[in-house]
Task: structure prediction
Amino acid sequence: MGQASRSKFFPPADSADADGLLGIGGQLTPDWLLDAYRHGIFPWPPNERTLAWFSPDPRAVIEFDELHVSRRLRDTLRSSKFRVTRDADFAGVIHGCGTAQDRRGQTWLTPSMLKAYIHLHELGHAHSVEVWHGDELAGGTYGVQIGGLFAAESMFYRVRDASKVAVVKLVEHLQTQGFALLDIQQLTPHTARLGAKEIPRAEYLRRVAAAVELPLRF
Result:
C-alpha cells in the first residue's frame, strides 16, 4: 500500500471530526479539488456561501469483483432499451444530479460546485457516463479521476434503472482500464443494493495513496 504525500491545503484526513468534517473555507479551484481527492477529502457545501470539506470514517467503495447485478438489471443491460456513452454530455449529467428526483434547491451541487466540476471536466480530470433512452438523457454518473482512483460524486435517473446501468458500465470500464479504486464517499440504500460496502478510513487512505500513483487515463 502507498504512503500519502502531505496535502498543500488540508490537515491530515484522519483529523476530521466524528461527522467527517475536516475544515471550512478554501477554494473550488482545480488545485484545491485535486489535492483534496488525492488525500481522501471531498467538498460538501451546505449552501452557496459555505464551503466545507469532509473525510468520513468509514468510507464507502464499490469493489469491482463485488458488484451485484440483479437478474432484472442484467436483462435490462442485455436489451436495447438504453444507449451508454462516456464524456458525451458531462454538463447534462451534473445538472441532472442536481435536479432529478426533486433535488432542486436541496442539493450540495451549488452553482459554484457545478462551475468547478465542469471546469475540471474541461481540463480532463472529471468524467461522466451517460445513459440515453432514445434521444433523452435518462440518467448518468460523474466523478473525478486521478491515476487509478475514480471518485464517483453522484448519479441520477429520469428513467427507471438508468442510474444503475450507468454504475455498471462505469465499473466495467474502470476494470478494463486497470483502475484500482472506485470511491463513492458514503453508503446509501441504492448503492448498497449494487454491492457497495464501507471500509475504515485508514484503509481507504492507504489505497488512495497507491491508486493515485498509477499512470492511467480514463
Summary: Residues 116 and 154 are 15 Å apart (CA to CA). The helical segments are 30-38, 71-78, 90-99, 111-122, 162-177, 189-192, 201-211. The chain has seven helices and ten strands.
